[in-house]
Amino acid sequence: MRSPTPRPSLIFAAIFVFIFLLHAPLLQLPYFWDETGYYVPAARDILLTGSLIPHSTLSNAHPPLVLAWLALWWKVIAYQPLVTRAAMLLLAAFSLLGLFRLAERAANTQVAIAATVCTALYPVFFAQGSLAQVDLAAAGLIFWGLRAYFEDRRLAAAIWFALAALAKETAILTPLALVAWEFFGLLFEGKVRVRRWWLDETFDHESVFRGSKWIAALLMPLLPLALWYAYHYTRTGYVFGNPEFFRYNVGATLNPIRFLLALAMRLWQAFGYMHLWMLTLAMVLAMFLPPQSDSGAERPRIAIPMQMVFLVIIATYVLALALIGGAVLARYMLPAVPLVIVLAVSTLWRRLSSWPAAVAAVGFAFVTAWFFNPPYGFSPEDNLAYRDYVILHEDGAHFLEARYPVARVLTAWPASDELTRPWLGYITRPVQVVRIEDFSLDEVISAAEFRANFEVAVIFSTKYEPAHSLFDRWKSWVDLKTRFFGFHHDMPPSAVAQILGGKVVFSESRKGQWIAVIEIERVEEAASSASGLRIRASGWRTGAGRSRAATVSSPLDGRSGF
Q1: Of the four listed, 3, 78, 218, 260, which is most buried by Cβ atoms within 10 Å?
Q2: Do 330 and 268 meet the contact criterion of CB atoms below 8 Å apart?
C-alpha cells in the first residue's frame, strides 16, 4: 500500500526551494573549469548566432539540448552567472523529482523522500547542481525514463531516453542496457529459475514481461542521436568531436591495464566515493538482519525485476565508462549513483527500525564532505573545492588587472580562457596570454626559453594534491597515474619564479589549492641568475622531459572528456 503524496508540482517547488537555498552562496560565482572551456562558450554561441555547432571553441559533438536551455534563459532574462545557475538548478530540481517518482514507484513515499534528500546532499550531485554542465540533467531524464519503463509506457520511455541522449550522448547507455536485458529475458523465458528476475509476482505476468515491442521502443532514442551526429558531420567533417577529443576519450583509453585501473576507480565512485561507502556498508550490514514488520506483515522489498534493472544499469555505466572517457570524472556516474542510493535506503527502511537515524547520519556525512577534501587527489568539481578554486582565480585576476593591465601573461588553461574572455566573469578587459600546458618542470623550463615573450606569469594548482596523500607515497601508483591519466606535479611558485627569473608578487592558497602571480625580471637582469637554474632544476626532474614552444591558443578540448 502506498500512501497518497502531494501533487508533483508541489514536490518540484519544494525541491527547488530547498536546493536553491543550499546553493545561494554559490550563485554569483564566475564559471569554473569545463564551464569556461566548453559548455558556456558553446551555449553563448547558440545565444549570439543560433548555431548549434560552437565556433568560439572546438566542437566536442556534445548534443545541444542543455546548452540550448541555457541560451533560452539568457535570451529571456540576461546573460549572467546568476541566471545560468538558477537555470541549472531548475534542471537539478526536475532531476530530483524524477528520482523521487522513480523511488516512489519502486518502493514507497518514505523511501522516496529519504533517497531524494540523500541524493541532493551527495557532494557530487550537490556541486554539479548549479554548474553549467550536462551530466546531471541527462541523469534526471534517465530517471523519468526508468519510471515510464516500469509503468510499461513505451512511448513515454522512448521520449525520455531520447531527450537524455540529446542532453549527453553517454545517456544512450541506459536504453541499450535495457535492450540487452530484454533480449536476455526473451532467451530465458522458459527457464523457471531465472524468470523471477524479469517477472514481478505481484502483477500480471503478461503486463510485466516486456519482449520484442519494448526492444523496438528502447532502440528509438538512437534515431535522434544519430541525426545529431549526421548533422554534426555535415557541418564539421567529423562525427564524434574533433580528432583530439576522440583520441583522448577513446583512442588513448583502450589499454587493458588502464581499463582495470579505471574499473576500480569507477567501482569506488559508484559505491564508496565522498562518504558513499557509509551508505553501502550500512546496506550490506542490514542485509544480515530480518525484515521489519508493519501490522503483522513484512515490509516489502523493491521487486526483484526492478532491482535487477537498477543493477544492470549500474554495471553498464561502471564497465562502459571504465573503457572510454579520458578523464575518470565522478560526474559521469550520476545516472548510476542515485540508483545505488535508492537500493540502499530501501534496504535500511526494510530491515532497520531506526532507519531514519541511519539515513540522517549518512546525510550528515555527505554534508561534511562538501567542506572537507578526501586524503587523495580528486576533481574539485566534486565538492565545494570548486568554490575555493574560483575565489582564488578571481583574486588573482583582480590583482593582475589592477597592477599589470597591459602585460603579456604566461599561464595555462583554464586561466588562459579566464583572462582572455571577460564574459566568463573574471576580468573586465581581455589580457594577451601566452599559454603552456601546465606547470610541471618540463613545461616551466620550456617557457623559460622564451621569457622575453611575457612580463608576468599567473601560475596555479592544476591538480588537487593533498599535503599527505593516501596513495601518492607509492611511486608505482604515481607512475601509473602519469602514464594513463595525465597526472603531473605542479611546481611550487618559488621554484617557478627561480626558473623563469622573476619574483612572486602575489600568492594565495585555500585547502590545498593555490595561485600566484610572478613578475618576470628584464632578460638582461635575469641572465646571470638563470645560468645555474638548469643544473638545480635537474634535481626536481621526475621523468624524461620534452621541450616545445608555448602557444597563444584555446584550451585542449579533449580535457573535458565525455
Answers
A1: 218
A2: no
Cα–Cα distance measured from residue 20 to residue 25, given in angstroms and rounded to the nearest whole number:
10
Q: Look at residues 47, 69, 53, 37 and name the one whose alpha carbon lies nearest to residue 230.
A: 53
Per residue in 58-67, pLDDT tens? Answer: 888 899 999 9
| 252-289 residue pLDDT tens | 677 888 899 999 999 999 999 999 999 999 999 999 99
Please give the model's pTM, rounded to 2 decimal places.
0.89
**Rg, C-alpha atoms of the chain:** 25
Q: Which of 318, 369, 333 is nearest to 122 (CA)?
A: 369
User: What's the sign of the alpha-carbon dihedral 437, 535, 456, 518?
Assistant: positive
CA distance linking residue 431 with residue 419, whole number of Å: 6
Work out the number of other CB atoms within 10 angstroms of the CB of residue 208.
Answer: 16
Cell of 437: 600546458
For the chain, which residues make up each domain, given as ranges? 8-372, 385-560
Element (H, E) at 298: strand 297-298
User: How far, in Å, CA of 80 to CA of 523, rounded?
Assistant: 41
In degrees and rounded to multiples of 5, residue 465 shows phi and psi of -130, 110
The β-bridge relationship of strands 297-298 and 293-294 is antiparallel
Cβ contacts of 408 within 8 Å, gap of 6 or more: 432, 433, 434, 453, 454, 455, 456
Closest CA to 410 of 452, 362, 357: 452
- What order of strands is seen across the sheet that includes strand 456-460? 432-436, 408-412, 456-460, 513-520, 502-510
